[in-house]
């Protein structure tokens, strides 16, 4: 099983700064005049509107004559690197990884919301009832350092245990499907901080339970997934940015008004039972919307805790 030890925030950000500098110096980030658009998403139902867009070719209709390529990447580190190197124009991710990139000099903006979904920390271990029950022998799977799951866990650790880095040496980096599979084995991974559909699937298993949810950690609701775009692409192709926003609106309406057909499409994507997916997308706590909420929650916490540079002014993070 692959394990990656999480670095303390200051060391992690120092290394990330160097990586961003090197990659940005070599990045092309040039779309030219060939009307090409490359978009990256990640795993989970938080990205369902993008899968509907692909299945119904909504964006192809919005942008006739464009070459549109879709990528599925394992985490936001991969998305950031691809955007810096000029191989990716648009990436969908959570707010904290975007803020880390922006703090370290990335030329990009958030241009749309995508979803708000329930996230949380699930365990199978009988001895773990609260956050304070975790020991150095436990391992918590999440997508990567600096992910929204990492930030929410750090927020909760500071709030309940008085130490934001309490869990850092327990974390291992895994994509959500791998994290779920590892959790089900009941061996090395004792908890998984995850999102739909994985969190619902895990909690249906007898003996598996939720230790912490995202809203409790953050203290408020927040947008889980947002769309980000490089300044280079958005300045050259504003019509494409507008088309993506419009496509997300249309796809979100399809999920709302045609849940059965949407579940059919998504069940193929997730290789899951259609009725199970239908149950999930009809939940009140799964919302697909272009609105972006909760950014200040993460900015305030990440500045205070050293995950982003405290002197950075984040007023320019939105595409207009």
How would you describe this structure in keywords?
D-Maltodextrin-Binding Protein, domain 2, 11 strands, 320 residues, alpha/beta
CATH superfamily of the largest domain: Periplasmic binding protein-like II
- Helix coverage percent of residues? 40-55%
Shape: globular
CATH class of the largest domain: Alpha Beta
CATH topology of the largest domain: D-Maltodextrin-Binding Protein, domain 2
CATH architecture of the largest domain: 3-Layer(aba) Sandwich
Low-confidence segments, ≥5 residues, pLDDT <50? 1-32
Strand tally: 11
Radius of gyration: 19 Å
Count of helical stretches: 14
Give the SSE order as H and E letters. HEHHEHEHEEEHEHEHEHEHHHHEH
Task: Give the helix/strand layout.
Layout: H1 9-26, E1 36-41, H2 48-56, H3 58-62, E2 67-72, H4 76-84, E3 90-93, H5 95-103, E4 108-116, E5 120-123, E6 140-142, H6 148-161, E7 171-173, H7 176-184, E8 191-194, H8 198-203, E9 209-213, H9 214-218, E10 225-230, H10 231-236, H11 238-257, H12 259-270, H13 274-281, E11 287-288, H14 295-305
Parallel strand pairs: 1-2, 1-3, 6-7, 6-8
Antiparallel strand pairs: 3-10, 4-10, 4-11, 5-8, 5-9
Helix pairs in contact: 2-11, 2-12, 11-12, 12-13
What does it look like?
This protein is α/β, with parallel strands linked by helices. The chain has 14 helices and eleven strands. Strands 2-1-3-10-4-11 form a six-stranded mixed sheet, with helices on both faces. Strand 6, helix 6 and strand 7 form a beta-alpha-beta unit. Helix 12 crosses helix 13. The longest helix has 20 residues. The protein is globular, with a radius of gyration of 19 Å.
């Amino acid at each position: 099983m692959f394990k990656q030890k999480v670095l303390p925030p200051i060391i992690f950000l120092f290394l990330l700064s160097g990586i961003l500098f090197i990659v940005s110096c070599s990045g092309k980030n040039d779309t030219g005049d060939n009307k090409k658009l490359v978009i990256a998403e990640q795993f989970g139902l938080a990205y369902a509107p993008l899968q509907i867009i692909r299945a119904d070719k909504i964006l192809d209709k919005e942008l006739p004559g464009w070459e549109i390529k879709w990528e599925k990447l394992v985490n936001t580190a991969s998305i950031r690197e691809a955007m810096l190197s000029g191989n990716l124009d648009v990436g969908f991710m959570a707010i904290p990884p975007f803020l880390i990139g922006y703090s370290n000099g990335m030329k990009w903006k958030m241009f749309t919301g995508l979803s708000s979904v329930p996230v949380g920390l699930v365990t199978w271990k009988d001895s773990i009832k609260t956050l304070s029950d975790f020991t150095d022998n436990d391992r918590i799977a999440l997508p990567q350092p600096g992910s929204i799951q990492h930030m929410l866990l750090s927020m909760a650790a500071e709030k309940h245990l008085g130490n934001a880095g309490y869990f850092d040496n327990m974390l291992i980096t895994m994509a959500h499907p791998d994290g779920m599979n590892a959790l089900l084995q009941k061996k090395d991974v004792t908890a998984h901080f995850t999102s739909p559909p994985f969190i619902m699937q895990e909690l249906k298993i007898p003996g598996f339970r939720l230790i912490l949810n995202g809203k409790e950690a953050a203290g408020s609701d927040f947008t889980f997934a947002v769309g980000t775009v490089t300044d280079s692409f958005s300045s050259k192709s504003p019509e494409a940015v507008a088309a993506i926003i419009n496509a997300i609106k249309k796809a979100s309406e399809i999920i709302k008004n045609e849940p059965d057909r949407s579940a059919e499409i998504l069940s193929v994507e997730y290789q899951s039972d259609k009725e199970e997916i239908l149950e999930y997308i009809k939940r009140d706590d799964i919302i697909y919307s272009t609105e972006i909420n909760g950014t200040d929650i993460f900015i305030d916490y990440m500045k205070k805790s050293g995950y982003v540079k405290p002197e950075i002014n984040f007023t320019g993070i939105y595409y207009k």
